[in-house]
Amino acid sequence: MLEEMNSMMFTNKQLRQLIVPLIIEQLLSVTVGLADSVMVASVGEAAVSGVSLVDTIMVLIINIFAALATGGAVVAGHYIGQQRKEYACKATDQLMLFVTVLSIIVTVGVYAGQNLILHGIFGQIEEDVMKNARIYLLIVTASVPFIALYNGGAAIFRSVGNSKISMESSLLMNAVNITGNAILIYGCKMGVEGAAIPTLVSRMFAALIMIVLLRRENQPVHMSRKIQMHFDKHMIHKILHIGVPNGLENSMFQLGKILVLSLVATFGTASIAANAVSNTIAMFQTLPGMAMGFAILTVAAQCAGAGDYKQVRYYTKKLLVIEYIAMVAINVVVYLMLPVIIQVYHLQPETAAMTRQILTYHACCACTIWPMSFSLPNTLRAANDVKITMWISIFSMWIFRILFSYILGEYMSWGVFGIWVAMTIDWLFRAICFTIRYIRGKWQYQNI
């Protein structure tokens, strides 16, 4: 097969240089959530629940900007594959300008609608949980523009295969966050505020680093020396053509989690806490998959930009095999460490039992279904086949994740575990649809 191809665009060494920093970056990123939840756990389950509820909203917002960043990265990757780096730089300028303006608008909107967000979405929750959620929301919302800029910059660097920069920025962000948590939560006894303030400060540092590095003209892709304050309609259209469907997909996905979370809230504080802890640990269980998803997007975008779909298929298969091996390895480790993890969170016996059941089931599904459900569609997105991934994901989310959550969780009285089962049914449907789309090959004939 290799002999039939033109010269390969990525060597094994280049793939390692891309993948290893991505895995480390994802590990560090997940550590932020783990550090917050573990340290806040010392304040009580109401604090853990409040932080978890707000984080669900924040992930929805962050996913919007991550999707736009993906759009910018794919456009830049196509230009790089075509050897048109000046246009890749222009795409960078437009991406960073657009996410800056939009993130400020979103931040103002969240502050203006905080009561609607807290009461309208989460409904009647215990007073202590609501108090902690409000405090955390008010502080962390200020970090939205900074995390948007960080995501945009990180995506651009990944598009050229340089994932080391985003890894190093993530390392600094985590160091600031964890140090701040230790000082403010344990030293100053500030509770939820002690978790929120370091999150804000760490994201500010990470965004600043990204902007400084992107403005260096010795980078393969960089921002213009003169700050661009006008929108290029053609370039923005190309970015949004990929970013908007991806953003709608991610937003609907997260909205589904929020709607389901309102159901979890009716099960009581023990279920909310078990769901919160499980969500944090579950991110470790899918960590290699998240990293490999970025790698597939980067590699496939450049190969698609060059018009070499044989290499797109070759690298997709190769990276998915690596991902499956890594997913099995990480989930075996997490399963063996479950007793220690549960002990660290100081959970009540009922909460601990629910958490153990959820994470064991999630590990099995992560090793078998997750890669085809979440990483494979990145090949389709990289080839500009974005609308089909959006419609499949939205349909699956509403029918399987939400509807089955109520059927299994409430009607059949499975509780919070039923909600996690419904989630994996959603995964399975997505995986089947994306695999069929990939095999049929229609994604190779999209306009780039």
Automatic annotation (TrEMBL):
One of its GO terms (cellular component) is plasma membrane. It is found in: Cell membrane. One of its GO terms (biological process) is monoatomic ion transport. The chain crosses the membrane at residues 56-75, 95-113, 133-157, 169-188, 194-214, 258-277, 289-307, 319-338, 358-376, 388-408, 414-439. One of its GO terms (molecular function) is xenobiotic transmembrane transporter activity. It holds the Pfam family MatE. NCBIfam families: matE. Belongs to the multi antimicrobial extrusion (MATE) (TC 2.A.66.1) family. This is Probable multidrug resistance protein NorM.
